Amino acid sequence: MYLLSLCGNAAVAVIVCTNCSLHTPVYFFLANLAVLEICYSSVIAPLALANLLYGRKATISLAGCGTQMFFFVFLGGADCILLAVMAFDRYEVEKHKEKDAPPTLRRKQEGMKLASFLDSAKEMAEASCLPLGCAELPVSSGLLQILHPYEGSMM
Fold this sequence. Notes:
Layout: H1 2-18, H2 25-54, H3 62-99, H4 103-129, H5 142-147, H6 151-154
Helix pairs in contact: 1-2, 2-3
């Protein structure tokens, strides 16, 4: 699985860099995400694979553990920041598209925004009750099932 992840992410990065038609901001961020994922998955997986293949517990020094933890946290944080930048880029693109959209499309977009907000609020309410052992929340998702019919099939 680790090698498949490395090959897939390397292929994405190489294809985006070599194909001139993919030199757009979305694909630039995607290539950077692929390279970052290669680095992130390479922090812990090789030692875990060595332990699995050789059947023995390979020890790691305190300095090695600290270094591994540093890179794991640093690359994980960089991954989160890159995803936030990608989300902001998509937001800006959609915001500019929205200004030029016809009124009927704008109403649909507003409906989807409302449905997305309600669905997020429902999920957050359910998730905030999980550690406390709350009973099932009486939130009806009928409206959300109509607007987003695939939500139930993913769970």
